[in-house]
Amino acid sequence: MSNDGLFDLEPASDPDPTEAGSSADAGPSAGAPLAVRMRPRSLDEVVGQQHLLKPGAPLRRLLEGGAPASVLLYGPPGTGKTTLARLMARAGDGSATTAPGRHFVALSALSAGVKELRAVIEDARRRLDRSGQRTVLFIDEVHRFSKTQQDALLGAVEDRLVLLVAATTENPSFSVVSPLLSRSLILQLQSLEEDELRTLLARAVFDPRGLNGAVTLADDGEAALVRLAAGDARRALTALEAAADGVQADGTAVIDLAAVERAVTEVAVRYDRAGDQHYDVISAFIKSIRGSDPDAALHYLARMLVAGEDARFIARRLMIHASEDVGLADPTALQAATAAAQVVQLVGMPEARLALAQATLHLATAPKSGAVVAAIGEAMADVRAGAVGSVPPHLRDGHYAGAEKLGNAVGYRYPHSSPDGVLTQQYPPDELVGKDYYVPTTHGAERVLAERLPKLRRAVRGTGAGEKG
Question: Which of 255, 298, 396, 407 lies most in the core, judged by the most C-beta atoms within 10 Å?
Fold first, then answer.
């Protein structure tokens, strides 16, 4: 069956060892990228994910030929999702009546539609009927499939015509339809630890499939590669290969810090604007500001800016935070955030990064108060609970014929007629007289409000002390 390239996510030089007529020992050509050449060929070569691969763990049982099941692999890039899918294809089904290896098909979520999915499923049906060989269907970035495409998989997954191995960098609970979730084992992969990355780098330097000892990795070079990788095995190996090419071109053989810096001029920040990283980083950004840690807040701001996050989105979050977590403890916080949003709109990036950083620092170092959000939250809760009441007659609109006959605006007292600008008058409905919503803190500018507000309430309510509702 011709796949027109839709089913081949791997380089042409990396033949599929599960295809008919291919050798299980066949590997990628010497010209393939280092990360492809070093892909683990067996479970013993897998580095990392020990929480999923320890004896008795579900994934290990699958890879050792246990009962077949569909799997959703969820985790950051470079953590082994494709590798685990291929190893699952090489595992048998634990039955003497089936082929020892499974047929492996990789489908591109970016280019395949329902038609291509159905073609794979029909081929899997024929293969299972003809030879007893089960098909492993690997779908990378499954979150990019539409609901219709995901629904097209349900029958085949339910009947185990295919063993689905779907990989995603996003939380599948938000990006995969519920029926598919319930039919699959959800496994979360973790970024590789530093020692695990060092193991991978050392193996790649000495393994005949890799650099075969042609270069030496200095300690500072290794540390730089580990730092640049940020838990991503593919990134680590790609950077190592670039550095090795550089030193060999210079006629040397030692990869040190300088060699790594020459080879890797800019590290791509792992940040998916449509996925979990987007939400995790903005959450950490806001919580760092709320926690009054300007340095951490700047770090997360930098991560978003380097990754190309929409500056308008950042500005909107700053404006919200200015009222939510600073409020009247620093009345200028909202002004600073709004001004930064205007700079983003009028000037644009990259210069607007300065205004965003200024607003971030302003909010992070400002005194904090949650009194604004608590006040409006309690007021809305009362309204939803039915505590609305009628607007007092003297506050109603009197600017139309017949309003006075209805009693509207009759008896209204104009505050500016008082020397103090404040006079006794009922403003809330009868049911809410004496109810306090806003409770200022003693932080920042709210300290003054905390002293002034009880006096205002006594003057307006005509009481000896502010009442609590």
Answer: 255
pLDDT at 10 over 80: no
At 123, which amino acid appears? D
The architecture in CATH of the region 194-263 reads: Orthogonal Bundle (1.10)
The helix or strand, by DSSP H or E, that contains position 165, with its residue range, turns out to be: strand 162-168
Contact 62, 69 (CB under 8 A): yes
b/e code 68-106 from CB counts within 10 Å (16+ = b) = bbbbbbbbbbbbbbbbbbbbbbbbbbeeeebbebbbbbb
Q: Can you list the alpha helix ranges (DSSP code H) found in 351-422?
A: 352-365, 371-384
Return the closest-CA partner of residue 334 out of 347, 345, 318: 318
Q: Is the pLDDT of residue 465 over 60?
A: no
381-395 burial: b if 16+ Cβ within 10 Å, else e: ebeeeeeeeeebebb
Closest CA relative to residue 84, chosen from 171, 7, 187: 187
Separation of alpha carbons 234 and 198, rounded Å = 13
Residues in the chain: 469
The answer to whether 240 and 201 have CB atoms below 8 angstroms apart is yes
Where along the chain do its domains lie?
34-188, 194-263, 276-365, 389-461
User: Domain 389-461, CATH 1.10.10 — does that match?
Assistant: no
Q: What is the CATH number of domain 34-188?
A: 3.40.50.300
Q: Kindly report which listed range (119-128, 336-345, 459-468) carries the lowest average pLDDT score.
A: 459-468
Topology of domain 276-365 in CATH is Zinc Finger, Delta Prime; domain 3 (1.20.272)
pTM reported for the whole predicted model: 0.55
